[in-house]
Design goal:
By secondary structure, this protein is mainly alpha-helical. It contains three helices and three strands. The radius of gyration is 31 Å and the shape is rod-shaped.
Length: 112
């Protein structure tokens, strides 16, 4: 009878070891996913996509320049302002032309 107990004990220990390994794997996987989701993925999600109507802005500037509503110096100042705005937005957001966006993204009006 003592020999039977000795044979069953290692089998029970193996089952216990497998259970510990499985539980440890579940805990580590859950912790890894939590860290990834909260600390790695969120900073990337905070970036949003915005569209800029550059084509409309340039057409408005061109027609203003041709019609004499704005001078060449104002045209250059407006272009510099456009470049500064796009550079500033690019630090916080992904900037694309509004012609590319179908829906779901903010479109910034440059006519101001």
């Amino acid at each position: 009878m003592t020999e039977e107990k000795r044979e069953n004990k290692p089998e029970n220990e193996k089952k216990f070891n497998y259970l510990v390994i499985i539980l440890l794997n579940i805990v580590l996987t859950t912790a890894s996913l939590f860290v990834y989701h909260n600390y790695i993925l969120k900073p990337q999600q905070s970036r949003s996509i915005v569209g800029i109507d550059i084509k409309g802005f340039l057409e408005k500037q061109k027609s203003g320049l041709v019609n004499g509503k704005i001078s060449e110096e104002q045209f250059k100042a407006n272009m510099d302002k456009l470049e500064a705005m796009v550079n500033d937005l690019g630090k916080r957001k992904v900037v694309v032309m509004s012609d590319v966006i179908l829906r779901g993204a903010e479109i910034i009006d440059l006519s101001q």
